[in-house]
Design a protein that fits this description.
Elements: E1 4-8, H1 17-30, E2 35-39, H2 45-49, H3 61-64, E3 75-76, E4 82-85, H4 92-99, H5 107-117, E5 123-127, H6 134-142, E6 145-151, H7 160-172, E7 180-187, H8 194-207, H9 220-224, H10 232-235, H11 240-256
Parallel strand pairs: 1-5, 1-6, 2-4, 2-5, 6-7
Antiparallel strand pairs: 3-4
Bound molecules: adenosine-5'-triphosphate and magnesium ion (MG).
Length: 258
């Protein structure tokens, strides 16, 4: 089976990208998939959320500039079948440094090449920073699909047309003609409020079946888990947040096919 690569992206900050990347990755690993979580955000929240210390030189930064290989950067986690390419603050420099480099949008794709060829992973999830800068564009160039978390809040759809346009551009100008919108995940859903319900119906009108049936509830357990360095299924398996990400993982696998 070829390795499939997905970017978890939304240029809006704080919408649940990292929470979704970490928890979906952990649930997919628990379902038996071999998963690589690639932290491409200089904030390194996915790295710490999986219990790894930020370490100097541990990120993909040097590799993206042409030094060494990405395989050397892969670290195990405390969880079976789940490995990670950590991030650290040096990735901040990538936007600036890569913008001047040759083939600057294909750096992540090229670096991931040997890892994909080795078929040591079933799935690679890339946690993107909150921007449509060079790092996110690199993730889009490397991915087969994009997963967009949307927070159940006013202005949830704000900026989505820009994201759509960028994806269409990469499609049309040949950077990644295979790029697809895999799905939209509604996050921080609160069924007791009309607002959440309104936002969901508006988003469903816009994206139709691309919206996952599974919605992620607002849950303090989900917000606490990263401070223990654990995905929710390992922090509080019987919580609503854990159940939601387990369902999302199943729905995700169904959607992407064998
Ligand atoms: N379902 C949820 N319920 C409650 N809190 C949540 C939920 N999802 C995310 N959060 C919290 O909201 C904040 C933002 O989430 P997260 O870091 O996943 O967003 P992000 O899109 O990755 O942010 P950034 O754009 O900064 O990378 C975090 O404090 C996180 O713990
Ligand atoms: Mg994040």
């Amino acid at each position: 089976m070829p390795t499939k690569v997905f970017a978890v992206a939304n240029q809006k900050g704080g919408v649940g990208k990292t929470t979704t990347a970490v928890n979906l990755a952990a649930c997919l690993a628990a379902l038996g998939r071999r998963v690589l979580l690639f932290d491409l955000d200089p904030q390194a929240n996915a790295t710490s959320g999986l219990g790894l210390e930020k370490a100097e030189g541990a990120s993909a930064y040097r590799v993206l500039l042409g030094e060494g290989t990405l395989s050397e950067k892969i670290k195990p986690t405390a969880f079976d079948r789940l490995q990670v390419i950590p991030s650290e603050v040096d990735l901040c420099g990538a936007d600036f440094e890569l913008a001047r480099a040759e083939h600057h949008l294909q750096r992540v794709r090229s670096a991931l090449g040997p890892i994909i060829e080795s078929t040591q992973f079933d799935l690679v999830l890339i946690d993107c920073p909150p921007s449509l800068g060079v790092l996110t564009l690199n993730a889009f160039a490397a991915a087969g699909g994009v997963l967009v978390p949307l927070q159940c809040e006013y202005y949830a759809l704000e900026g989505i047309s820009m994201l759509n346009r960028v994806m269409a551009q990469l499609h049309d100008n040949g950077v990644n003609p295979a790029l697809e919108l895999t799905g939209v995940v509604m996050t921080m859903y609160d069924g007791r409020t009309r607002l959440s319900q309104q936002v969901v119906s508006e988003v469903r009108e816009h994206f139709g079946e691309r919206v996952f049936e599974t919605m992620i509830p607002r849950s303090t357990r989900l917000a606490e888990a990263p401070s223990f360095g654990k995905p929710i299924i390992h922090y509080d398996k019987y919580s609503a947040g854990s159940a939601a990400y387990e369902l999302l993982a199943q729905e995700f696998l169904q959607r992407i096919g064998p």
